[in-house]
Prior knowledge:
Layout: H1 2-24, H2 32-42, H3 50-62, H4 64-71, H5 85-100, H6 106-120, H7 125-151
Amino acid sequence: MASNRHLGRIIALQTLYEEELRSEAKDKSFNIxxxxxxxxxxxxxxxxxxxxxxxxxxxxxAQAKALDKKLQPVxxxxxxxxxxxxxxxxxRIGLYELENEADxxxxxxxxxxxxxxxxxxxxxxxxxxxxxxxxxxxxIESKSxxxxxxxxxxxxxx
Length: 158
């Protein structure tokens, strides 16, 4: 299943990449459902977890602007629109999974994003992705820890 999810992330990345390219070109004929279906069909014999691919792709697509707002403060020297397209998409996928895929351990999410960056990004993409997602994970864990401590009941002195 793990390698199957890796393939699913690749399909999601391909679909999101096409979405961005065609959107930038003002291609009004783009339909994410059609492109996603085509990309899934291409790997149908090797892909078991189609629901994961659908959820990941549609979730990242729908939340792209919100994800970008969360990514920007972590890499302030790189305005989000100046980050290489592939790196930006890998970061969105990674952040989306960190926030929405509770069944995937965070270190696996980051490792998968790094592997995508190695395969599809530039020479330094994997280090950049690892640094940004690592920082985001620490931020998420810190917020989660603060919520737990603020919710824990205070003991009365006896």
